[in-house]
Design goal:
387 residues, alpha/beta, Aspartate Aminotransferase, domain 1, Aspartate Aminotransferase, domain 2, binds 4'-deoxy-4'-aminopyridoxal-5'-phosphate, binds glutamine
Length: 387
């Protein structure tokens, strides 16, 4: 029997697992350098690993409170205050989740009714279309246009209908690496306020910004009361396998998201919550250092991609650079990425799968640079085989 939610299977574009899992499996099967799925090949702060082990030894091994352990909720509230001047109540304004993935799913399930519409910017991170579909809602997209991934505010206006419930904004943005600027955020905030929409923002790359400044949408006038801000420890601390995230915002919205979360996972890994609280309180310097190193990796990879003739859009943030393979005479990113391991032993992700309008992204390929310099050097050397 087929899946009950046609959109879910359609989003997999003929693959049986997500594009990231598919590409990691392809890399493993072919011995390729994996610049596909976005995960670093170096673990985050060793003091956090020790804090996790210590939390286990101290007996934090049974179900923690559903909303999250108090020390982490307080650390998240302090983080929002110290970095962005946002007032968040650690008691009822923070919900700890199993990664940003669960936070996004719970937000959509909690805040959308069947038939509602969600507006997002394409290319969209893969879980947005799937989770919108799980919630029985419909995704309407506004296209970000290369080279600077700008959008037309009129297209945003046109995407909003009487059924629109919320705007789902990802900044810094995966896969493009765009950081939405103040003017763009003001235009999105203006639309939310004029049409009385909620906003859910996915800010998992908030600390991996190289150029420009990350600003939470919740900080704009009139937005705090209608915005749920989502983030995660995975990217900030180079610990993507921990899957500890959070959603924060006004108490009534967080209460609705909490109601959904309790039937998804109920609660999130107890010892890791303690270690993430430690990280938020104590590991700011390591985070800043890692972001600086990542900027150098971005340049290393982008220089290498440009040198082989790929039109490269150098990102301001995140783990990812996008190229347009049309500059190599290629027409189809999915086919290119499926053939790449055979052609030269490298794996990348076809960004075309993140588009509702496939023609808009047919020749875009995403490359992860969150890897050791020698791994990037090896990938670039192999890619020279394309010439
Ligand atoms: N949103 C975006 C934009 C991402 O790139 C990712 C992948 N890390 C997630 C959400 C999921 O984050 P997590 O691993 O914390 O679930
Ligand atoms: N966020 C990661 C990426 O964009 C993938 C996470 C996952 O595999 N779900 O590559």
């Amino acid at each position: 029997m087929g899946a009950r939610t046609p959109y879910l299977t359609a989003r997999l574009q003929g693959f049986t697992t997500t594009i990231f899992a598919e590409m990691s499996a392809l890399a493993a099967a072919t011995g390729s350098v994996n610049l596909g799925q976005g995960f670093p090949d170096t673990d985050g702060p060793s003091a956090m690993l020790e804090a996790a082990a210590e939390a286990m030894r101290r007996g934090h091994n049974q179900y923690p409170p559903g909303p999250g352990v108090p020390v982490l909720r307080e650390a998240v509230a302090a983080h929002q205050r110290d970095h962005y001047g946002l007032g968040v109540d650690p008691e009822d304004g923070v919900l700890v989740t199993s990664g940003a993935t669960e936070a996004i799913a719970a937000c959509l399930l909690a805040l959308c009714d069947v038939g509602d519409e969600v507006v997002a910017f394409e290319p969209t991170y893969d879980s947005y279309a799937a989770c919108t579909s799980l919630a029985g809602a419909h995704l309407r997209v506004v296209t970000l246009h290369a080279p600077d991934w700008a959008f037309d505010p009129e297209e945003l206006e046109a995407a909003i209908t009487p059924r629109t419930r919320l705007v789902l904004l990802n900044t810094p943005h995966n896969p493009t690496g765009k950081v939405f600027d103040q003017q763009e955020l003001a235009s999105i905030a203006g639309a939310c306020i004029e049409h009385d929409l909620l906003a859910v923002t996915d800010e998992v790359y908030e600390h991996l910004v190289f150029d420009g400044v990350h600003r939470p949408l919740a900080g704009l006038p009139g937005m705090a009361e209608r915005t749920i801000t989502v983030s995660s420890a995975g990217k900030t601390f180079s610990l993507t396998g921990w899957k500890v995230g959070w959603a924060c915002g006004p108490a009534p919205l967080v209460a609705a998201v909490r109601a959904a979360k309790q039937f998804l996972t109920f609660s999130t890994a107890a010892p890791l919550q303690h270690a993430v609280a430690f990280g938020l309180q104590r590991c700011g310097e390591e985070v800043a250092r890692a972001a600086g190193e990542l900027a150098a990796r971005r340049d290393q990879l982008c220089d290498g991609l440009e040198a082989i003739g790929l039109r490269t859009f150098r990102p301001d943030a995140t783990y990812f650079a996008t190229t347009d393979i049309a500059s190599l005479g290629e027409q189809d990113a999915v086919r290119f990425c499926l053939e790449l391991p055979k052609r030269c032993g490298v794996v990348a992700v076809p960004s075309s799968v993140f588009y509702q309008h496939p023609e808009a992204g047919r020749t875009f390929v995403r490359w992860a640079f969150c890897k050791r310099p020698e791994v990037l050097a090896e990938a670039v050397e192999r890619l020279q085989g394309l010439l």
